[in-house]
Amino acid sequence: MSKAFDYLREFGVFYLATNNAGAAAVRPFGAVSEKDGKLYIATGNFKEVYKQLGADGNVVLAATKAGTLTWLRVYGKAVETKELADKEAMLAACPVLVKIFKEATNPVFAVFAIEVTKAELHKDDGTVEIL
Fold first, then answer.
1. What secondary structure letter does DSSP report for 125?
2. Triad 45, 31, 94: Cα angle to 5°
3. What total number of domains does the chain contain?
4. In 21-99, where do the E strands start and end?
């Protein structure tokens, strides 16, 4: 597992920033998985974030460690995956998604693979670790 994934899981809620017709759009996410060095997130194909990711896959994820000044920023390129195995793996890794989408074949269940291009851990002491 990558350090970026480990920190996302440890920190809990993270924020996904997308391009909304030239303006930043940011929303909280909590479900994330990893496979073959890529991060995976899920959403419904009826949501604005789905449309934004389809139009421009450049994303930034950010998370903070509760009670500290430590925070994480991950840059990447998101591409939708239609692979049933990827959707099943996402549901297995993030059971909360089962409550929402029920099964991998749900037609509104969309999964995006994020190829990480850069990840930074900003620490309490002001230093930055490139992950």
1. T
2. 100
3. 1
4. 23-29, 33-35, 38-44, 58-64, 71-81
Tokens of 94: 């993030």
Which residue type sits at 104? Answer: A
Q: What is the pLDDT along the chain (131 residues), one digit of tens a residue?
A: 599 999 999 999 999 999 999 999 999 999 999 999 999 999 999 999 999 999 999 999 999 999 999 999 999 999 999 999 999 999 999 999 999 999 999 999 999 999 999 999 999 999 999 99
Give the global pTM: 0.95
Domain of 105, CATH number, reads 2.30.110.10
Find the domain containing 46 and state its range.
3-130
Strand, helix or coil at 118?
strand
CA dist., res. 98 & res. 80, Å (int): 19
- How long is the chain? 131
The structure tokens listed for 108 are 């509104």
CA 75 to chain centre: 10
